[in-house]
Known about the structure:
This protein is an alpha+beta fold. The chain is 48% helix and 11% strand. A hairpin with a 4-residue loop joins strand 3 and strand 4 (103-105).
Amino acid sequence: MALKRATFFTYGTDDKCNEIQKFIEDAGVILDVRDIEKDPLTYEELEQLIGYLNVNHFLNNFSDAYTEFKLDKSLPTREEVIKLMARDHNLLRRPIIKTVRLMTVGYNKRKIAEMLQINYNGNNIEQENEKRNTRESNNRSGIKNKRNHTSSVARKR
């Protein structure tokens, strides 16, 4: 099985980010961690990270900066929002977890686990699927055996 790797954008000593980081690392995913408080994202990096996605997915509407910049009243253009995010990283929802093809923003463990194909208990989803398939196969075998037994009993009558 290939090792999983992701980029993890966090902010300082945010307890929720630390909890999610531990959850992912405990599942065996290798993280390239970037603390955007110490190493802020540039406008160009934000533009590339956000890509064609809706910029609202990346906005932290609980931050003081959100109301300070009056984003709760109306949103400026996409370009302006990204410029504001580059200026004040408190506007970014976090953590941001990015793989080669996928990305999640925020603390939703279920979505993170689905994206990284890990389970809440830290097992790989592929391992969990294998266990489930084995159980289902065993259950089907048990059903077939019962059918065969029932069939032979029915024939004896």
